[in-house]
Design goal:
The chain has helices spanning 10-13, 29-37, 51-60, 69-76, 86-98, 115-127, 157-170, 191-203, 219-227, 246-252, 262-281, 294-300, 303-313, 326-330; strands at 43-48, 65-67, 104-107, 132-136, 177-182, 208-211, 234-236, 256-259, 332-335, 346-349. By secondary structure, the protein is of the alpha/beta class. Strands 1-2-3-4-5-6-7-8 form an eight-stranded parallel barrel, surrounded by nine helices. Strands 9-10 form a two-stranded antiparallel sheet. Mean pLDDT is 88; it is low at 1-22 and 325-350. The structure holds sulfopyruvate (SPV) and magnesium ion.
Length: 350
Amino acid sequence: MRNVTDRNRSSETGMKQDCLQPSAAPKRKTTQFRNLLHSGELEFVMEAHSGLSARIAEEAGFHAVWASGLSISAALGVRDSNEASWTQVLDIVEYMADATTVPILLDGDTGYGNFNNARRLVRKLEQRGVAAVCMEDKIFPKTNSFLKGSTQRLADKEEFTGKIKAAKDSQLDSDFSVVARLEGFIANHSLEEMLDRADSYASAGADALLIHSKQDTADEIASFVAHWNHECPIVIVPTTYADTPTSEFRKMGISMAIWANHSLRSTIPAMQNVCRQIFEEQSIANLNGHVAPLSEVFRLQDTDELAEAEKRYLPSNPVSHSAPTNDLRKNLKLVMPAKTEPSAPVIQAR
Ligand code: SPV
Ligand code: MG
């Protein structure tokens, strides 16, 4: 089912509006993401939490971006406990999609409610050019999987299965992907239960399964894949087992590894150091290359594109409306509004 016309979808494909040629049309972002899931290679996906960080991830070479719930909430100054509303997250992820040509996989937490909220989320993500969503089998409001001492309550298996099915049934673009994330290992459930849930979610139409683990080795992941005999691609988040060589993941047949929070974490010492230094020195004279030059900020904002567009779309001799030229003044008369109207004079052309 593909009832969305490509003509209206330039923001989704990352195509510039002026190069819409069918033969040269790049794949839709949803298709790009699906192709990554099924590339037969181990693909790496980089975290981002803003338009800027998403663009930087793409420039580094990543073919897809993880819109991390932890990072987005941290950047907003709130906790990873659904304190940011789902529409606030949607607004951020829209900036990220606009700033990139690679697909975005949104960390959609639990889908922000029940099946109904999840399917509305899918429709809104499609409208905003997001290629895929990941939803985890926990209870709303969720807490971060690595938060020590937090209770990680799993959703009922049937309820979450229905949520995945509703999400899949509601997508308009057949290549939009729904990744079902299993938190069973995080919540200390057994491998048997993980396999049972995985089976149920895959049967409901999940396009991939994210198997999460908080161990410092990849043993749980290895035990799961050793018993998992479905085609459904496996996604992992090797934050705590960062020392496991990626060659191990390849041997296990993992499809995608997400570097889930490292862009956000890199900004924290950078901001702390520069703030401390400026505060202590009461000066910005000695930053010595610790901050990007303004030219780099402008480049990342694609300021040149606006300058080019101004040449195309603005009149070559612009007339200022706030300060009419003397020539123009001759053709204008000053009209004073009636007493009941706003007090500012209105300039009216003859
Ligand atoms: C996130 O990045 O928000 C995630 C991954 O959900 S983790 O924090 O590792 O649970
Ligand atoms: Mg998260």
